[in-house]
């Protein structure tokens, strides 16, 4: 069925505004709006009606009346009036109930809401009442519409364009800073402020600071005598030291630190540091001076931690960080033995561990939070240097995820082999430092 005939049938049964009529043919012709498609169809129908009327066919007047009332088309109304015919009152659109005419009002409302937020990109999400969506589906089926688009996508595109023009921000389908959810029928709008992600690396220069907030085990955050009414087991965390200054300047609600793995509370993180992403929820500010922020954080956390290489990133980086947990690491630990040890014994440990596979059952100390299973981890290289008759420093370059303390103590036989096993002498790790997190070629 050709476009004009089909459109005349649609209008005969239902009042339709220009955008809603044009939308039924949205996939025909590029570079124009549905509103223009609808207008062009109604213009042609008006011309056709006029032509039919001139040849003294009453069908012409009937067609003009349909375009005038059900199409609310001014040209047809004007023509009828000039010809001394009555035009019926205009009817509001069967599909959108006239909501496409109110887009400017909706846009204004959105702009008022956006005022308090700094952002670069956004996305419009449209929610339609079920009744409206079903009605359009039935309409499409009834008139065999095959080249149309959905009302939802037209609303989001039209509103998105309007907002974009007025405030000079870009629509981003993948990682928008804000999502504006609109129901044009109830006039409700909702803002979804997406988190801000800032990546960097941290070095931890002292022992005794956990990576993330650690609540007091007795009161679980409430505050009690044991934690001096702070609710925390450790007063500071890397998350807080990095995140709090960020939270302040971004005027956000909450922070989460995503690390590429974590070191023990009593281990330092040295070398070029551990990659992290700090997530700031619901930030009002996004255009931050990262250099200045880096300086502020480093100044406030002086002597405790140090960060560098801050840059903006997105949520995909968090996923990549988690994958990087298995990145190779270089550790250094100081071991105290139960008795004096010979150079030959130290050499034996070095040889036994270099280029070896360690079978490590989940350590006793983390069993409460990790599944009990045996992991196979590779050690590329072990280097041992004597410090005292019963003390040595060991450097281990290994696959990520190997627990170093247990590699020394053997963890009651759960880690095999271990330094204790190899020598059959008690061995205790005194300090642990992470010297390097080796990031693969695909990472920066
Ligand atoms: Zn409409
Ligand atoms: Zn407490």
What does this entry look like structurally?
The chain is of the alpha+beta class. It folds into four domains: 3-82, no CATH class; 99-193, VC0802-like (2-Layer Sandwich); 196-324, 2-Layer Sandwich (Alpha-Beta Plaits); 328-438, 2-Layer Sandwich (Alpha-Beta Plaits), CATH 3.30.70.3190. The protein has helices at 3-13, 18-23, 34-54, 59-69, 74-82, 103-114, 130-142, 151-167, 238-250, 290-300, 315-324, 343-353, 404-409, 419-423; strands at 121-126, 170-171, 178-183, 188-193, 196-204, 254-259, 267-281, 305-313, 328-337, 356-361, 374-388, 391-398, 415-416, 427-438. Strands 5, 6, 7, 8, 9, 10, 11, 12, 13 and 14 form a ten-stranded mixed beta sheet that branches. Strands 2-1-3-4 form a four-stranded mixed beta sheet. A hairpin with a 7-residue loop joins strand 6 and strand 7 (267-281). It is elongated. The model has no long low-confidence stretch (mean pLDDT 92). It binds zinc ion (ZN) (2 copies). Residues 216, 218-219, 223-224, 226-227, 231 line the site of one zinc ion. Residues 16-17, 19-20, 93, 95-96, 100 line the site of one zinc ion.
């Amino acid at each position: 069925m050709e476009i004009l005939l089909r459109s005349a049938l649609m209008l005969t049964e239902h009042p339709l505004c220009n955008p809603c009529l044009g939308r039924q043919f949205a996939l025909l012709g590029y570079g124009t709006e549905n509103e223009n498609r609808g207008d062009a169809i109604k213009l042609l129908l008006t011309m056709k009606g006029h032509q039919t009327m001139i040849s003294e066919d009453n069908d012409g007047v009937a067609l003009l009346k349909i375009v005038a009332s059900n199409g609310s088309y001014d040209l047809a109304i004007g023509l009828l009036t000039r010809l001394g015919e009555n035009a019926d009152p205009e009817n509001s659109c069967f599909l959108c109930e006239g909501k496409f005419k109110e887009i400017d009002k909706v846009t204004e409302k959105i702009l008022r809401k956006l005022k308090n937020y700094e952002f670069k990109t956004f996305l419009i999400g449209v929610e339609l009442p079920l009744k409206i969506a079903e009605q359009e589906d039935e309409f499409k089926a009834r008139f065999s519409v095959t080249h149309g688009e959905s009302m939802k996508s037209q609303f989001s595109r039209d509103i998105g364009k309007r907002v974009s023009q007025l405030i000079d921000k870009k629509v981003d389908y993948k990682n928008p800073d804000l999502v504006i959810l609109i129901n044009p029928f109830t006039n409700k709008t909702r803002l979804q402020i997406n988190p801000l992600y800032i990546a960097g690396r941290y070095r931890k220069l002292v022992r005794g600071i956990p990576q993330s907030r650690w609540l007091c085990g007795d009161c679980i955050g409430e505050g009690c005598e044991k934690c001096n009414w702070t609710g925390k087991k450790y007063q500071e965390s890397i998350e807080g030291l990095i995140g709090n200054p960020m939270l302040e300047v971004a005027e956000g609600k909450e922070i989460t630190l995503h690390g590429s793995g974590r070191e023990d509370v009593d281990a330092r993180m040295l070398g070029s540091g551990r990659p992290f992403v700090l997530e700031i929820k619901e930030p009002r500010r996004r255009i931050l001076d990262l250099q200045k922020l880096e300086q502020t954080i480093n100044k406030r956390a002086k002597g405790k931690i140090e960060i560098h290489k801050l840059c903006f990133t997105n949520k995909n980086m968090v996923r990549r960080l988690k994958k990087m947990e298995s990145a190779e690491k270089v550790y250094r630990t100081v071991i105290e033995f139960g008795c004096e040890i010979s150079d030959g014994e130290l050499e034996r440990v070095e040889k036994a561990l270099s280029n070896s596979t360690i079978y490590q059952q989940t350590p006793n100390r983390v069993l409460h939070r990790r599944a009990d299973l045996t992991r196979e981890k590779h050690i590329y290289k072990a280097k041992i240097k004597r410090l005292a008759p019963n003390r040595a420093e060991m450097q281990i370059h290994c696959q990520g995820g190997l627990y170093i303390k247990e590699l020394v103590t053997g963890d009651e036989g759960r880690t095999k082999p271990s330094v204790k096993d190899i020598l059959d002498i008690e061995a205790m790790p005194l300090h642990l430092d992470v010297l390097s997190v080796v990031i693969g070629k695909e990472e920066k």
